[in-house]
Amino acid sequence: MEYDTVREVDPEIADALSGEVERQQNTLQMIASENHASEAVMEAQSSALTNVYAEGYPGARYYAGCEYADEVEELAIERAKELWGGDHVNVQPHSGTQANMGVYLAVLDPGDKILSLDLTHGGHLSHGHPANFTGQLFDVEQYEVDAESGYIDYEAVKDKAEEFDPDIVVSGYSAYPRTVEWEKIQDAADAADAYHLADMAHITGLVAAGVHPSPVGVADFVTGSTHKTIRAGRGGIIICDEEYADDIDAAVFPGAQGGPLMHNIAGKAVGFEEALDPSFEEYAQQTIDNAKALGETLADHGFELVSGGTDNHLVLVDLRESHPDVTGNDAEEALEEVGIVLNANTVPGETRSSFNPSGIRAGTPPLTTRGFDEEATRTVGDLIAQVVDAVAEDNFEEVRDDVEAEVAQLTDEHPLYE
Ligand SMILES: *Cc1c(COP(=O)(O)O)cnc(C)c1O
């Protein structure tokens, strides 16, 4: 990926694009919401479909010239149905947040009530945070994870639903390492006669592969991200029953968006095709096995994991007990310096702030894409522990070069794009 054509026009951007490929090749990406899309997906995303206006839906567009756009969108929808099931799929949301917006616009009015997980406990901005349109337009009440166990307290969610009487209950999370029990959230929604939006953003690929239970057929609406545990490029999707199909489609376009990003929908179609290959299930299972190996390694080094471990692709580390003087940002910055890229994250019962929280979140989807197995992932866990311990003991400079060299060896052994 040399970006020669870009370089002829714009060397500054070409340098940045090549720099980004090198950064991804030469560092370990452990942002739990990221992955590495294939060259096929990226090629589709940079196709001539970026030039096409395809407002509307396949077969019913507002513009001429949509023959190939129709073909691409129909294939994306068909493949999504094969991956997740469901009567109706909308592949147009530009992002996961836009997918959620589509659902809210379809069934809520301003002032209606949302019950969702608190952001600092693992929820998402688009579930009712005051800085997001959801917090501004709707009346939001939040549930939490159990302070002791770190698991969703489903009984408490149901109690809150009975008390608050929401119009919609939202499940699906950004920093929750455990299996989501969709039926139990459905019980809570039923108790309030509310809709249930299952936002499977992080685990969209795990659900497709059948290594996490599916919310399709349980919740009224399922939204997903196409760039996290599935490698279909940036975007969102909505899955729902036929009875909501028209409302959802109208809420996405013209409700929330204009013309669909047809080039990204082509990327989704290609990524979905890749995920229909039987090898994708192995990938998804390996992603989980690697996350478990990472969690066990960190626990062996004395780190405290929220909920004590993981069932999915991520671990959430609470640094407060093991490393009381190291903040999430301190850890994130030191790790980035040695080429391990993850993020500081709030933890349940956060005592610092969202800007400098007490935890770190690490995911294994990108490492697994480049071929990491449990053994290689354990090595990464050892390196993370070594760096954070060194920060705590004020001798980071002493370990830095050694860790950097080990990261370089791991990235060399696991080339990203051959
Ligand atoms: C990542 C995520 C989204 C989507 O985010 P976008 O950045 O808008 O694609 C939605 N919900 C949850 C729970 C997420 O973790």
From TrEMBL:
CDD domains attached to this UniProt entry: SHMT
InterPro entries per record: PyrdxlP-dep_Trfase, PyrdxlP-dep_Trfase_major, PyrdxlP-dep_Trfase_small, Ser_HO-MeTrfase, Ser_HO-MeTrfase-like, Ser_HO-MeTrfase_PLP_BS, SHMT-like_dom
Modified residues (N6-(pyridoxal phosphate)lysine): 228
Methyltransferase keyword on record: yes
Entry's Gene Ontology BP terms: glycine biosynthetic process from serine; methylation; tetrahydrofolate interconversion
Cofactor requirements of the protein: pyridoxal 5'-phosphate
Assigned keywords, A-Z: Amino-acid biosynthesis, Cytoplasm, Methyltransferase, One-carbon metabolism, Pyridoxal phosphate, Transferase
EC number: 2.1.2.1
Pathway involvement of the protein, from the record: Amino-acid biosynthesis; glycine biosynthesis; glycine from L-serine: step 1/1; One-carbon metabolism; tetrahydrofolate interconversion
UniProt site (Plays an important role in substrate specificity): 227
Any one GO molecular function term: pyridoxal phosphate binding
Principal localisation: cytoplasm
Signal peptide bounds: none
Keyword hit for Cell cycle: no
Subcellular location: Cytoplasm
Domain Serine hydroxymethyltransferase-like stretches: 7-384
Chain segments carrying region Disordered: 349-371
Family classification: Belongs to the SHMT family.
Subunit and partners: Homodimer.
Record HAMAP family: SHMT
Task of the protein: Catalyzes the reversible interconversion of serine and glycine with tetrahydrofolate (THF) serving as the one-carbon carrier. Also exhibits THF-independent aldolase activity toward beta-hydroxyamino acids, producing glycine and aldehydes, via a retro-aldol mechanism.
The protein, known as: Serine hydroxymethyltransferase
Source species: Natronoarchaeum philippinense
